Amino acid sequence: MHGGIVKGASLSIVLLLLCHGLVAQTGKRVAFLPANSKYAELENRVADRLIEKFAGRPGLTVTDRQSIEKIIREQNFQNSDRSSPDTAARIGKIAGAGQIILVQVDTGSYTAQPQKSGNTTTAVGTVILQAHARMIDVETAAILTQPSSSFQDSAEIAKVVDHAAINTPLYRRPASKEVVSNTDPKVVENNEWTKAVDAVSSELGAKLSDALASAPGAKVEPALVAGISNGSVYIDEGTSAGVKVGDRFQVTRRVDTGLVDPKTGKPITRTTQVCVLTVTSVDVDNASGTCKGGLPQSKDVAELIH
Prior knowledge:
Layout: E1 10-16, E2 28-34, H1 40-54, E3 60-62, H2 65-74, H3 85-94, E4 99-117, E5 120-137, E6 143-145, E7 148-163, E8 166-167, E9 172-173, E10 176-182, H4 185-214, E11 223-229, E12 232-235, E13 248-260, E14 267-282, E15 286-293, E16 301-304
Parallel strand pairs: 2-3, 2-4
Antiparallel strand pairs: 1-15, 4-5, 5-6, 5-7, 7-10, 8-9, 11-12, 11-16, 13-14, 13-16, 14-15
């Protein structure tokens, strides 16, 4: 141990996320992973909408996308086949999730074509979106459910009426075109994609909800103190494990009593309370706060106080 250690009732704590994994503190934890196919942009949009739909539900913690992307970078999953249940399960397990939901778009297209009826020509934009989501158990890599959804819709971009020329002794009028409607094509396209993503994510979300309700929760393990350096105490949980400002952790330690179990020959230990940590600042992979009580040591257990 080196550096100045703060003495007294309060000790500055820095919580650092270690690489061996993140764990949910309560309830179920789920992560969403875009498959990163040729429709990667659409998969990101659908995944984000699903996260919005599931975030904040009682008893459910949703791992944020930034944390998943960080795991992919740091664990060198960039070039891995995310559509593989084994790969997705490995990513989900590192994220501390019980299930990871792989979002994959099968078809995504938008076309603008003219449609003629009599003397009227209408430019119509048509969007088609088909996607599926695989809910994968991170412990077994088994696919628990695989709902799909499809959406197709068309919207008018512009309408033009052709007026034929009139040439009579009493009246003459040259041929002309009357623009009945004319909307910015990009606005129509963006609106159609928004409708498609909302519809598909809503249907997938409804189908996933039932399966998620009966899915097993993630294995819960307590956070451990990693050690002390320069007056800061490190433990292995951060925001990806659901840590929030204001959370409090009871830090405990197993202490040897000096006795031995006569049946097993193993030392008999007891749990002692060391301090209570209050989180005051949180980042993606670290947080900081103060600990009132004793001085934490490496491998002390930090459990969320509910």
